[in-house]
Amino acid sequence: MLAPVSSSPVALIIIDMQQGMRRMPAESRNNPQAEATILRLLSAWRAAGQTVVHVRHMSLTPGSPFWPGQDGAEFQPELQPLPGEHVQEKNVPDVFTHSQLERWLRVRGIQRIVITGVSTNNSVEACARSAGNLGFDTLVVADGCYAYAKTDFDGVPRSAQEVHAMALANLHGEYAQVIGSEVALALLA
């Protein structure tokens, strides 16, 4: 069981919850409740006065829905950052690459991070791998992430749940602990 936060800061990192994600076909993803779970975590983090980091993907590919200036690059309205909440932009899947996020967290004494967002097998997994390798106490909220159906390297179609479960399996015990949202919320008790 994980110890509650007490006096140690813990950051909630919300990855790529942008309007462009809503353009993806809903039937090709899992965890349809993920946004509500993330909102519940965000509300709890704010109420507890803990650190929130909003990650926004800014594509380098013209025409992408995440290209700067496109409405798809904007945060989903219900998950908008508040003044004072850190926004970290990225243009590769891993938010720690080409950014000062590691230093930003360390300067604030943050050793434990809780990761949510999209997609489990892409930006979430990349962020969690780097965080674990950098020595952060890294927690990934399984019901606060989602993935999309994908064909594997052997040409076998995989459901979104299979892609999600494999990504979490890649992380758990190696780079991070995979937890549920109730365990994440208990950290704030």
UniProtKB/TrEMBL annotation:
InterPro entries: Isochorismatase-like_dom, Isochorismatase-like_hydrls, Isochorismatase-like_sf. Pfam families: Isochorismatase. Its EC number is 3.-.-.-. GO terms for molecular function: hydrolase activity. Residues 11-181 form the Isochorismatase-like domain. It comes from the Bacteria. Gene3D superfamilies: Isochorismatase-like (3.40.50.850). It is an enzyme of class 3 (hydrolase). Keywords: Hydrolase. This is Cysteine hydrolase family protein. It comes from Vogesella amnigena.
